[in-house]
Each structure stands twice: as structure tokens, then as C-alpha cells.
């Protein structure tokens, strides 16, 4: 009798375990699909996710575990994602571009506790990737599960920019808000600036905050805008955390179909063994404390015509082949520097997502976010100081910008803001 009761209790226990596992499995599928009870839909989505991962992630010669949770894969340079673009089928690598000639560097002596250069967190665990490889941040199942459409992971919305009047503006009803400085109307073959790095608060998962440089050409109110972009961004949806990360972007058709962030689609060719695009930047600036910045230079190589990106004082990250573009196959007509956020709180209170440091421009050094030493590259492949810039902010009560010129920082500006406040309800 006792043995029979024991067998019954064991059977009940095993049944409860199986039932729990079944419920957990269903809940996991529901979390993936967002549809309760739709296991078939969940299976289809997971199939899309894994197929996407096969395209993005390449075999690693070495993998480096970063302290921030990222895995950096050292991928053979000839197997990197960028080379799969149809226009690059027979692409020949360019190794040594003709760097723009520099004007005399400034010492930044007028400011106490001047900015130091930031670097990437994954370097804390060891050296760069081996020669012949490039570091690539590994994309995970979780990355693709956070977005509405895994197929479009890493792409911007199709209505990212709308140009109004004679000023570049991004007021498009899509929640994008900016505080930017810009020059336009000339022939620009690149641009350079140093910008400090912060960790702004992001209110909602679908929102982001970034500081970047845009190199632009084409029809600003049409579908043929060409754009090359680089800077740092905080995007919980894209990366799953609130850390500032180095990023790049490009498009040749006004964000319709071409281009993406970082190496999440083909196009950008990476050459650096030490810079991982999409990896976290560390350390970051602190309010009333130490400031850390990065210097970005983008320029068009006069010999091969490719658009190169340099980080710091000489680290070549990689390049956008000129064959990707239509208008930028020649030169840029507009350059912008500044901040951007996405506000998803349409019809209600303004988002509290911060731009830059989350403080307004007038608060100045160690409090506000900045861009310093703005320069452009001319037709002779020389860096030239900018005498003045135009500025634009859609709503200065939420985020604003103030430009200035001095002997140490040349043309520079402070920008940013907290978003929602008493004047920006």
C-alpha cells in the first residue's frame, strides 16, 4: 500500500514538472511573438531570428568576453559582413588612404581639467584582435527579440528626415528632435570634430539619444539623400542597455531601403583590428567632473574616392566605398554636428529622454555636452577651420544649442537638455 502511494506521489510530481516546463515554453514563445498562445507564429519568428543571425554573425578566429557583457568576435577581414553588398562583389581592399593635411593642433590650455580621450570597454580584457581580423560585436537572439521586425534590425525608419525651408530640419512627425550646428552650400570632402561622451537617461525602450556628425548630399526633400554618419549613441532597443556606444550609419536613398547601423548589413568595410563598431565607450563624462571625448574624422580619399573614418589621432576604422553612393560619389553639400533623440510620447507629456548630458547649453563646460574644433575637408584634401556655423533646435525649451569661437576650441558649441521639464511639459 505504501509503495503504491509512493508511486502515485512520484507520478504527480513528474506531471507537475512537465506541466511547468510546458507553461514556461509557451510563455517564452509568447514573449518572442507578443501574441499569447501563438506558438506557430513564435516558431516562424524564431526561424527568422536565427536566419538573420547567420547573415550578421560570422565565424570567429578568436572571441573576447567584454566586462560589459558583450562578446567581440575577431572575424577574418575577408569574411566581414560589409563585403556581401552586391555593389562590392569584386571589391579590392584599400589599405592606405591619403590622410588630409592637418592644421596646427590646439593645446586646450584655456580650460582646467581638459578632456581626456575615451576608449572602448572590451579593451580592458586584453589586446586587440589578431592581424588579419576585425573586431565585430556579436549580435544575440535577445537583440533581435527586442525589435518589432528582425528583418529590419539595425535600420532607421523610412521617415527619419524632412527638410523644410532653407534650413536642414528633422521635424517629421516621427518623434525625432535635434539640436545641431551645420554648414551648407559648399563642396565638402569630409569633416572633423571632438565630442564628449555621456550616458543620458532614456525613458522608453523605443527611444534613443545620440551625438553625431552627418556628411550629406542629395535632395533633402526627396528620396535620394546620401548620408554618412558617425558618433556615439545610447539605444536600449538596439543594444539592450543604457551604455554609450560608438556607431556608424549610411544611406543612399533617404533611409528608404539602403544602409544600417554599424556592421548590421553590408556596405561599410572595416580595417581596424582595435575598434569595434557598436561596442561600449568607457569612461564617460560626469557632471562637474572629468570629461572624456572622442575625435572623429570622416573624409573622402582623393585617390580612390572612398569615404574613410578615423577615430582619435590616426586610428583608421574603415571606409564606405564610393560605389555605395550617388551624390556622395563626388562630394558633400552639407555637414551637421549635434544631438538627436526620439520622442515616442506622442499626444501626451514630452519624453524625459535626455540629449547629451541632460543639461542645457548655457551650463557650459563639465555640465553640458559639446562639440569642439569643428573642421571641414576642402577639395585639396586639407582640413580647414570653420569660421561660423548656423544652429537649429526644434524646441529650445526641451533641448537647445549655443555656438562660440575661441583660440583653443576654435568653432565649437554646447548643446543638450533634459527633455520634459516645466517649460517642456
Task: Describe what you observe in this structure.
- Helix content is about 15%, strand content about 30%.
- With about 425 residues, it is an alpha+beta fold.
- The chain folds into 2 domains: about 30 residues, no CATH class; about 350 residues, no CATH class.
- The strands form 4 sheets. Strands 3, 7, 11, 13, 14, 15, 17, 18, 20 and 21 form a 10-stranded mixed sheet that branches. The protein has a 6-stranded antiparallel sheet with strand order 10-9-8-16-6-19, with no helix packed on it.
- About 10% of the residues have low confidence.
Summarize the structure.
The chain has helices at 2-33, 39-56, 141-145, 236-239; strands at 60-65, 71-76, 116-117, 119-120, 133-137, 176-188, 190-196, 209-217, 226-234, 245-251, 269-270, 281-282, 292-300, 307-311, 315-320, 332-342, 369-377, 383-385, 390-393, 400-406, 410-416. The chain has 425 residues and is α+β, with helices and mostly antiparallel strands. β17 (369-377) and β18 form a beta hairpin.
